[in-house]
Amino acid sequence: MRHTGSIWRQFDLVLFALAVVLTVFGILMIRSATLGAIDPDLINRVPDQIRFAILGFGLMFALAAFDYRLLGGIHHWLYLIMLVLLILVKQFGVEGDGGAQSWLNIGIRIQPSEIAKVLIIITLGMFLAQNYDKLDSVTTLSKSLIHVGIPTALIFVQPDLGMTIVFVVMWFIMVWASGLRLKHIATGTLIMTLAAPIAVPLAWSQMEDYQRSRITSFICEECDRDAFYNIRQATISIGSGGLFGKGYAQGPQNTSRFLRVRHTDFIFSVVAEEFGFVGGMTVMTLIGVVIIRILRGARSAVDPFGSLICYGVAAFIFFQTVVSIGMNLRLMPVTGLTMPFLSSGGTSLLSTLAGIGLVESVIMRRRRVG
Hints:
The protein is mostly helical. Helix content is 72%, strand content 1%.
């Protein structure tokens, strides 16, 4: 039997310190992006982020202390809770700034898809761990796709295309980490290629106008100049930052309000304008080290379930970081995805810190003690 004290000796202090530094820096950047605001929503962004950060770190420690294998034991209930939350959004959800009906108002506004992002890691991880020796079967692979497909479909119809893609990426990474066979990759690629002529127009028809404009403005600037405005201002912000930046809260694109939604989608542009190339690279490096520490936890996990939890958390942090920076640099279409730790968004921060807590739980139990 392992004593509680010995478990906490395995706690990854480096991972925790990185989470603290990035979260505090994110709060400071949100403050810079909302200084002088008169909109009550913008004024409340910093105190809201602080409250969710405190709650998030409390949740992180609670999940770290809780044996992740016990969560695996109730994975059916967690899956049911996830579906209920997503169905409630469809019935009683409220719209956010981007137009998606993705939030529930329960006194405070929460985004159930962010909660589902953590729950699907647990439930899919448990399913794959239980079928670890059957992954050469197309049936098992299909069941895993259905497992993810149901909540993903509920998220897509909100509509939230960005989070839909996150779920697909997490599914692929976790299945690949479980031992996805090359023949399945080839078969899946062939099926997607054949289905594309039908699936792409169908998906396009289900998108809202603002989602289509994000894609068309990325492909063709002249097609929607208003939608392209943010992208142009973001690239100007990043370019004007130079090597060391304009200084904290001194960036003219930010302070003069040329850059819209700078506290969420384009927070990286604010970082690059105020702290320059050095600041942007530092942020990317810190998040990169977070991902490395998580993957280190995956390699040292005592069982496949723990390893898959780590891979799932690493997948969404990596993907959302790449997409967020990519859309700020005009390398990817605007998706509305938050940048982990930095972007304003209470439930987003909560889910990220909850993910870190799950990883810590795996790391703290990485050795067997007789």
